[in-house]
């Protein structure tokens, strides 16, 4: 078991964490970045990214994150493959323990733990998870090659997943609880033009149905919210794409959160209620949630941590 001591501990390695690491390392703060459960964050489970500035052609999300991490490392970040299991933010230096058993001692902390996929919460959803029900088309889409799948949700994730799956699967049915999509217009246009995609409006999933042992999904039972009519949509795979929850359970009782458990920061900054603890990226942002905005707040967090250290040397 080792003890790692640093002026700035960055928890999470998505675009917020990596950007904080790049800025902190270039300020000679010798940051430690703990990669977490999903190294690289949400961009590692996406495919094409065409809205991250600097790339004329679409790039791959996992590639972008690999580059960000390498960049952080090249400028001097110590990257540790661990997951923070507990943290004490009641006094400085702050202390944390990793699942590896290692201890971390830090003068400042940047929380960049991001957000994770949200589930519907149905009993049957749990039963068929990994047996037809998934929250990641880029991870699991291949298993449904030439098969029929449904995608649940109406945001950018749902549309992106549906478009991705349309290239692999026989048919894709997007099921949305309202009669308009929340997704960007450009994605909607592409979706409506794709011949093997259809949309079922005003419908919620009541149950995932299939064979019991071994579990094997054969369809989803949906209910029309306007007429109350129930139908079963046959499918081999169902992709839940209904948004995300912030990864904040570690900070419960220590960092102030809003009703949805997003960390609260002082307006226009990344400063949390604990001096010296900063929050960047999706963990504190339920409005924009873009790779570029996460990177921007990661940069802010590193600069604010640097300033804090100058005043609390
Ligand atoms: P969003 O919160 O944008 O959308 C979630 C969707 O799921 C909504 O359509 C919502 O319905 C629906 N939904 C939520 N809860 C339920 C439920 N219990 N039952 C049924 N439907 C439900 O999440 P996304 O993951 O799509 O996107 C998150 C953020 O990431 C957004 O800011 C998005 O713009 C961004 N993003 C950007 C991408 C890009 O630019 N390339 C790609 C993917 C995401 P309703 O509309 O009725 O609220």
Give a short synopsis of this structure.
The protein is of the alpha/beta class. It contains 7 helices and 19 strands.
How many β-strand runs?
A: 19
Which segments are poorly predicted (pLDDT under 50) over 5 or more consecutive residues? none
Rg, Å, rounded: 21 Å
Main beta sheet? 7 strands, mixed
Q: Which cofactors or ions or other ligands sit in this model?
A: NADPH dihydro-nicotinamide-adenine-dinucleotide phosphate
| Mean pLDDT figure | 95
- What percent strand? 25-35%
Name the helicity range: 10-25%
Class of secondary structure makeup? alpha/beta
Distance between the ends: 28 Å
Helix-strand topology string: EHEEEHEEEEEHEHEHEHEEEEEEEH
Please tally the helical runs, counting DSSP H or I stretches of 4 or more residues: 7
Backbone shape: elongated
Q: Explain this structure to me?
A:
The strands form 5 sheets. Strands 1, 2, 5, 6, 7, 8 and 19 form a 7-stranded mixed sheet that branches. The protein has 7 helices and 19 strands. The model has no long low-confidence stretch (mean pLDDT 95). It is elongated and about 65 Å long. 25% of the residues lie in helices and 29% in strands. It has 313 residues and is of the alpha/beta class. A hairpin with a 4-residue loop joins strand 7 and strand 8 (103-111). It binds NADPH dihydro-nicotinamide-adenine-dinucleotide phosphate. NADPH dihydro-nicotinamide-adenine-dinucleotide phosphate binds at residues 51, 120, 153-158, 160, 177-178, 182, 204, 241-244, 289.
